[in-house]
Write a structure and sequence with these properties.
The structure is a single chain. Helix 2 packs across helix 3. This protein starts with a helix and ends with a strand. The protein has a five-stranded mixed sheet, with helices on both faces. It has a single domain, classed as Trna Endonuclease, Chain: A, domain 1 (3-Layer(aba) Sandwich), CATH 3.40.1350. With about 140 residues, the protein is an alpha+beta fold. The longest helix has 18 residues. Helices cover about 40% and strands about 35% of the residues. Strand 2 and strand 3 form a beta hairpin. The chain is globular and about 45 Å long.
Length: about 140
Amino acid sequence: MGVIANNANRMDSNIIFPELSYKIIGAAFTVFNELGWGFSEKHYQRVLSKEFDRLNVAYKEEVFIPFTYKSSRAINYFADFVVEDKILLELKVVNKLGYTHVRQVLDYLKTAHIKLGILLYFTSDGVKYRRVLNSSI
């Protein structure tokens, strides 16, 4: 049993921003438990911002991330949240994530030079999430 605990501790030490990640995901579960299923992404976003306020979590909402090519703006990205200037948070209301959702978050991370993204998705079965790591940082 000692070996299992040691392995678990080693895995936890490899997680980037674990406390903040757990707080974000916990807030999403609180929101879902209160609202339930069936609302738009904007509804969940607005209520999640209220939950962040309640928890004293610093965040920016609808964060503008300009993508430039040869000193010229090519694309304008808007991330749902950047939490404590450490974690980019993107919300979806879908029953199943696709490659394009993960790719979107990875593009945001690379452009914004942020190490970790969390893709939260609200489904009819509850809240699910995927951590996305920007390995280029």
